[in-house]
Write a structure and sequence with these properties.
Helices cover 31% and strands 17% of the residues. It is of the alpha/beta class. It has two domains: 11-188, 3-Layer(aba) Sandwich (Alpha/beta knot); 200-268, tRNA(m1g37)methyltransferase, domain 2 (Trp Operon Repressor, Chain A, Orthogonal Bundle). β7 (119-128), α3 (131-138) and β8 form a beta-alpha-beta unit. The chain is elongated. Residues 1-25 have low confidence and may be disordered.
């Protein structure tokens, strides 16, 4: 733990079968949400998670991050972690007998209940990450995230460990590290006391099924463009109504899929 970090709760040092050179120096803080990230590039973390509100929360002990270097579980003299796909084809596949032991190591000290401690593989074929999903993850005890590379991971290891596949969208990245940081950021900001104003969560995009309304601030006029009069009226009721209507308008035009879901949910209740 760095000198800047603050201790919140009781520290619990747990044993591990992993070689000491692969272990992070940060002891567990009991009761604090934790992300364990299995990656070939542990030096990529915390990355942007060390900045702004997530970085401050990390220093203050509101959440924890542990990286587990996949190469340390590699096989043979060269610590091989991948092999050509069975049946032929391009690229390489991360081996089950490498990823499996890494997941076993990450599992130590965590709940086997997938709701309390989900194991996630960042994958373009996974379910799209949503605000509701991030909210559910923030209510868990923590999460283990597997960052893929190459052509993916041996399917057997995903089945064996009940791994959930999550995607950032319909595109492909060179690896799962950026996606993992996005998922962690979306989740950590929902943890208690991370955001300075909890009310901001209630009004942002996707929190109520709609996109967030447009935002404005000083100056009142910029390059001939004025702040809408209603926002300067001081009438809170009219401001609230305008924001809801703009959220509906934006959602309908920019995300018709969300708009349809919103209408169905509205009709249901």
């Amino acid at each position: 733990m760095s000198e800047k970090s603050k201790s919140h709760g009781r520290l619990a040092i747990r044993p591990s079968l992993k070689p000491r050179v692969l272990m992070t120096d940060t002891p567990d803080i009991v009761g604090v949400w934790k992300a364990k990230v299995i990656t070939l590039f542990p030096e990529a973390f915390p990355g942007v998670l060390d900045r702004s509100l997530t970085g401050k929360a990390l220093q203050d002990g509101l959440w924890q991050l542990q990286t587990i270097e996949l190469r340390g579980f590699g096989i043979g003299k060269h610590k091989d972690v991948d092999h050509p796909p069975a049946g032929g084809g391009a690229g390489m596949v991360l081996k089950a007998d490498v990823v499996g032991p890494a997941l076993e190591d990450a599992r130590r000290g965590t709940s086997v209940n997938a709701d309390l401690w989900p194991v996630i593989y960042m994958s373009p074929r996974g379910k799209p990450l949503t605000q509701a999903m991030a909210q559910k993850l923030s209510e868990a005890e923590g999460v283990t995230i597997l960052c893929g590379r190459f052509e993916g991971v041996d399917e057997r290891v995903l089945e064996e460990y009940n791994v959930q596949e999550i995607s950032l969208g319909d595109f492909v990245l060179t690896g799962g590290e950026i996606a993992a940081q996005a998922l962690i950021d979306a989740t950590v900001r929902l943890l208690p006391n991370v955001l300075g104003n909890a009310e901001s969560i209630k009004n942002e995009s996707h929190s109520n099924g709609l996109l967030e309304h447009p935002q404005y601030t000083k100056p009142a006029e910029w390059k001939g463009r004025k702040i809408p009069d209603v926002l300067l009226s001081g009438h809170h009721g009219k401001v609230a109504t305008w924001r809801v209507e703009m959220s509906k308008k934006l959602t309908k035009s920019s995300r018709p899929d969300l708009w349809e879901s919103y209408l169905k949910l509205k009709d249901k209740y």
